[in-house]
Every structure is written in C-alpha cells, then in structure tokens.
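We emphasize that the prediction below concerns an isolated chain of 217 residues; any contacts that depend on oligomerization or on bound cofactors are therefore not represented. The input was used exactly as deposited, without trimming of termini.
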Amino acid sequence: MKKAVIFDLDGTLSDSIHSIKYCTDKALEPLGYGPFSVEQYYYFVGDGAANLIKRALTAGGDTELTHFKEAYDRYLEIFAENCMYQVKPYEGIIPLLNALKEKGIAIAVLSNKPHQETIRVIESLFGKNYFDVIMGQQENVPIKPSPQGVFLILERLGLGAEDILYLGDTATDMKTGKGAGAFTVGALWGFRDKKELLENHADAVIEKPLQLLDYIA
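Result of the prediction step, given as a token string:
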C-alpha cells in the first residue's frame, strides 16, 4: 500500500481559475492588456506566477515583455489580497482526503503558487494542520517540473518515491511526478485534457477524485 499522496493545488485540489483570472486581469488592465478568457487562463497557468504573467502579456501583444516587472509586481500584490477569490475544492476532493486520512496515508501539497498563498488557500479550504506537508513556490527551490519539491516532501515524510502517488492535472505535474520516480496520476477534472496527460506519461488518469483509491493498494 502507498504511504502518501502528493497533490498539485490549482486544478487538482482547488478550482481556482477565477481567482487567477481576476488577479491577472486586474494587474494587466492599467497597462492596456486583457481581459482574457477562462479558457486562455487554463493554458497560462501551471508553471508559476512569473510564467503566468509572461504568457498573458505575450497573448496581449507584449511579446518583448517590456511590462513584465510592473505587471508581475502588481500581480503579486493583488494576488496576496485576493488569492481566495471564488476558490473552492473540487467535488469529491474532501471525501478523498478524508478516506486517505482514515487509511493512515499522509497527504501533502506541492504547488507553483507562491508559498504563503499556497498555505492560505489550503488552510482556508481544509483547515490548519490538515495536510502533513504544504509546499508552494519558495526561494532556492526550483519550481515544477523540477522534482526537487517532491524530494523535499519525501525527506520530511521519511519516505521514498516508491511509497507515494503524485496527482496533478497538467503536463508540468506529469513531468514532476515522473521525474521523481513516483506513480503519477492525471486528474481529468482540472485545467488540461486526457491527451496532454497521457502524452506526458501519466501512469493512470482518473475522472473523479475517489478513483485515486483504486491505486493506493
């Protein structure tokens, strides 16, 4: 039986696309860019805040990223205040988490969202001390798809890659999990499609959260 599950946050645990869209659109509006559609944001996200802003600016026509620093600084300020805007857990996530905890399986989060906002979202949705480890984007730790965050979580849990499942919804997540040597599962309720997940070597894909339990044993 697996001993832990590491979850991506946005698009896996939390339906947060509207908070990301709201904050990014608000950051870019004074610069004359946006607003962008939810569908566009599905492909802007996944690789950290800096890449989110770069992709939005590029889509808006600033291909030289001349407004990057101003836009990025504005985004971080706005997001710090509004990271919970319309954010909610996906249907079936809370029953999955409860089932894992009942089985004595550790649960952790690895996100490219800034670390303090990652903590805030998790604690707002699920309560304090519910997850065993929470890790967002931090200095001196490369963002996903680097597997470094997975290795740090494993070290804190005292486990090896063979002991865990990694669940995420994007190519970045599949690369992260596989890079760490973990059994990697794609979430079809998130921001990307089955084709992307399988092309990036997901070991399995699931349509509903509770289906993850089929891979625990």
